[in-house]
Amino acid sequence: MGGVEQFIFQLARGCHRNGIESVVLSLSEQADDHVMQMDGHLACRAKTDFQIASTPFSISCFSKFAALAAEADIIHYHFPWPFMDVVHFATGVKKPTVVSYHSDIIRQKNLLRIYRPLQRRFLSSVDRIVATSPNYYATSGVLSEFKNKVSVIPIGLDKTSYPLPAADRLDYWQTQFKGRFYLFVGVLRYYKGLHILIEAAKGSGCPVVIIGAGPIEAELKAQADALELNNIHFLGLLPDEDKVALLALCYGVLFPSHLRSEAFGISLLEGAMFGKPMISSEIGTGTTYINIAGETGLVVPPSDPVALRQAMQYLWEHPQQAAEMGKKAEERYWHYFTADKMADAYTRLYQELV
């Protein structure tokens, strides 16, 4: 489960408590007609037929979407996903519409030139656009074109939706990593800055544990092997119970994403939720709305392994200050980033739209 999937899950779960019924339609390689009940909402899947530039397309999605949209009061999209724009116009949606704007399109610059007219038409057609942080809203050229319809609602998490790790799992991981360690959690993608983190770990005695898998996993492991690092530990995908155990046990959370493709940082927010000091990069997105420099952790320039190494060393050598930052991080979570606050804000928005 990636960040957007976690957000949709938390939103549907939170809005259910406010009397809102959600049906989530997504694409899947293993799709069938079975509708799944997921903690208060329904999940439907259409089969992925092919992909272009990492964007999945589905023929059956058109009819499934049209049938579900006919029964709904509000259609809630998640951007960017160019196929969604095509489905929106092809099915002639006449219902109130809201878009959660997760990120500008950063990497596919050539394809963006082709897509931009459709993107502009789609965003012009919807009733409301929601940015996930004031930081991203302030730095997005696309969102600046639609100021009259943009709201800001930060992503929120419900801590009670995370499993409590059993004592034996905590004991197991404590045995595996004796003493302190830093933790990274996330899909291993190009914009996560893990190659910078591995470079920063060189010459540092701080153990770094990496949870996750992804398209550049082999490349990152090869980099760590070439540098002969014994303080980097790749654990791959883990069950949520183990992830929570490691979040509870870790000394601090590292989040070295260096490109604006990282628009928010849900695993960074998980670190705050578990009261951990954080180290992240300043990329003009929601990461610096979660992690306030000098208050909840440290913020370094992007793509700077020396600065990242120095930040890691500083927190390592100042445990009292690190603990205070972790406490303030958790306080900030409870003040701004709970699932209830997010769901209540979206509920008010939905009520306005209908």
What low-confidence regions span 5 or more consecutive residues with pLDDT below 50? none
Shape, per Cα inertia axes: globular
Task: Please indicate the percent range of residues in DSSP E strands (runs of 2 or more).
Answer: 15-25%
Mean pLDDT: 94
Count of β-strands: 15
The domain count comes to 2
> How far apart are the termini?
31 Å
Classify the helix fraction into a percent range: 40-55%
- According to CATH, the fold-level topology of the largest domain is Rossmann fold
Radius of gyration: 21 Å
Please describe what this structure looks like.
This protein is an alpha/beta fold. It folds into 2 domains: 171 residues, Rossmann fold; 178 residues, Glycogen Phosphorylase B (Rossmann fold, 3-Layer(aba) Sandwich), CATH 3.40.50. The protein contains 15 helices and 15 strands. Strands 12-11-10-13-14-15 form a 6-stranded parallel β-sheet, with helices on both faces. A 4-stranded parallel β-sheet has the order 6-7-8-9. A 3-stranded mixed β-sheet has the order 1-3-2. Helix 1 crosses helix 15, helix 3 crosses helix 4 and helix 7 packs across helix 10. The longest helix is centred in the C-terminal third of the chain and has 18 residues. It is globular and about 60 Å long.
